[in-house]
Amino acid sequence: MPASFPVTVALVLMALLYLRGWMHLRNAIPAWRAAVFLGGLFCVWIAVASPLVALDEELLSIHMVQHLLLMTMAPPLLLLGSPVLPLLRGFPRFATRGALGPVLRFPPVQRLGHLFTSPVVCWFAATIVLIGWHVPPAFALALGSESWHRVEHASFLAGGLLFWWPVIPSWPSVSHPRWSTVLYLFLATLPCDALSAFLAFCDRVVYPSYLVVPRGFSMSPLQDQQCAGALMWVCVTFAYLIPAVAITTRLLANPDPCEQTAVRPILTKVRPGE
Prior knowledge:
Elements: H1 4-25, H2 31-48, H3 60-80, H4 84-90, H5 93-105, H6 107-116, H7 119-134, H8 136-144, H9 146-164, H10 179-201, H11 209-212, H12 221-252, H13 264-269
Helix pairs in contact: 1-2, 1-4, 2-3, 3-9, 3-12, 7-9, 7-10, 8-9, 10-12
C-alpha cells in the first residue's frame, strides 16, 4: 500500500466530516467557506500525498513548494472555512457530548488554547518551525527518514495554522482587524526573507543531499537552490502582503466597531454538542 494512501483517506474523511457538519450550518456558514476549506485540504494533499512527493528528494524547489503549500497556502484556506464548528457538528452527537465537549470545556485545556493562540507564541512557533527545519542537519534528517519527513510536514502544517490564527481567527475566537496584525505580518516576512535570500544568493549548495541524487532535470543543484529561494521569497511576500493590504484598507475605512464577523451569527444559533 502506498505511503500516501492513509493520508489521502484521512483527508477525505475530514472533508466528509466537515461537510456533514456544514450541512447542519449551511444557513449560517456560506458555501464559499466550505469551498475554501476543501481547497485547503486539497493543498495538503498536493503537498504530502500527490505524485509531487516523488520529486522532493530530487529537487529542492519541489521540496520548497511542499513547505509553502503546508505553511502558507493550506492554513489560511482551512481557517477561512471556519472549521471548528462544522467539524464538531460533523462528529456523531454522542462523541461530541461524551468526549469532545467535556475536553474542550476543561479549564486547563482552554487556558492552554489561549496560550498557544496568542500572537507572540504563534509568531515564534512558526518562525522556529521554518528556520529549524531548514538548518542543514535537520533538513538532512527529514530527507533521509520517512518518519521524520512526516514529522516535518506535520510541524509545517501545525506551525502554519498557529501563525495564521491571529490573522484569520476562527470560532471560538472572534476579533476585529487591528494595526498590530499588519505589524505581525510584516515581522513575519523578515525570517522568511532572510532564509530565501540566503538560498537564492549563496554560491554553494547548502544541502549536500541534492548533490548525490540522480537528476532527471537540466537544472544544476545550485540553480535548483536559487529557484527554491526565489520561489519562497515571491510566494511569502504576496501571501503576507495581500492580507496586510486588506486589513489596512478596512482599518482606514473606519469600520463600525460593533461590526460582527462572519462567525458571530453561528454562535447565537448553535452550541457545540447540540
